[in-house]
Design brief:
The chain is mainly α. The protein is built from 13 helices and no strands.
């Protein structure tokens, strides 16, 4: 029963924090530590992200259909002037940096980078960058107005999300705002861009860590994945609608507060860095 409850909790945390720019990894590291549980590890996290991947595919099914249609039409006509054709290429190209760095830095991502000092620093520093982006951005571009330059910048920014605590949605939304995207557009593009990265990461970890994962609580792992998908879908809907009329200020404040709390708990010996 404990493992089932543990699986449900991980699923809720993953679904809530994967899309809201407050870092899923930070919460999956800190909450278990406070409860006296072991760190589930990067492989476990990557697998339950498949649930949030499915949520993204379902929520953005119309956009994805347009992207696929635009891509193949462009290949056929050799004309990439269609906005969706251009976006499809940008998403593919934007996935390359995180794929390269993810494989290169895999040992550190699953090890030293998961230290709580790094996570707390990432939470706070990205919050500051997001605050600056909110202040300087003009929030005018829609999805179809994203340029090649914008796509490349956001794609390289996504690679920063390999540092736990930074947040995949956090870094890509921040980069999108710096590029002049509307808040909800930055979030929408961030989620579309995350699809290949999450899919590749989840499949890779599922295959490479299959022996280790078989020793995990399979029911708990499956339950985490299902719950993360359901909660993730609701999180996407919430954030897209929220950012239509509000800024990221509440998430900025939350990140800073959480980062400071982690540092205080580390200093007090309540949390351990390992």
């Amino acid at each position: 029963m404990d493992k089932i409850l543990e699986g449900i909790l991980y699923g809720i945390i993953q679904g809530l924090t994967e899309f809201i720019p407050i870092s899923s990894t930070a919460h999956i590291r800190v909450v278990p530590a406070l409860l006296g549980w072991e760190d589930p590890g990067a492989a476990y996290t990557a697998v339950i992200q498949i649930g949030t991947l499915i949520a993204t595919l379902v929520y953005f099914r119309n956009d994805i259909a347009e992207l696929i249609k635009g891509f193949f039409n462009a290949l056929k006509t050799r004309n990439f002037s269609d906005p969706y054709a251009r976006l499809s290429i940008l998403i593919i190209v934007g996935t390359i940096p995180i794929s390269i760095f993810g494989l290169t830095l895999k040992k550190y991502i699953e090890g030293d980078f998961r230290g709580l000092y790094i996570i707390s620093a990432s939470l706070i520093l990205l919050a500051i960058l997001l605050y600056i982006a909110e202040k300087v951005a003009d929030h005018r571009k829609d999805l179809k107005e994203i340029t090649v330059r914008d796509g490349l910048i956001i794609g390289f920014a996504q690679a920063v999300a390999l540092i736990p605590g930074s947040s995949r949605s956090g870094v890509t939304i921040t980069a999108g705002l710096f590029c002049g995207l509307k808040r909800e557009t930055a979030a929408r593009y961030s989620f579309l861009l995350s699809i290949p990265a999450i899919a590749l990461s989840g499949v890779y970890e599922l295959y490479s860590e299959r022996a280790e994962l078989l020793h995990e609580n399979v029911i708990g792992l499956l339950l985490s994945t299902i719950v993360s998908g359901i909660v993730g879908y609701l999180s996407i809907a919430f954030l897209i609608n929220y950012l239509k009329t509000r800024s990221n200020l509440v998430f900025i404040i939350y990140r800073i507060v959480l980062g400071v709390i982690i540092l205080v708990l580390l200093y007090a010996g309540v949390l351990k860095n390992v």
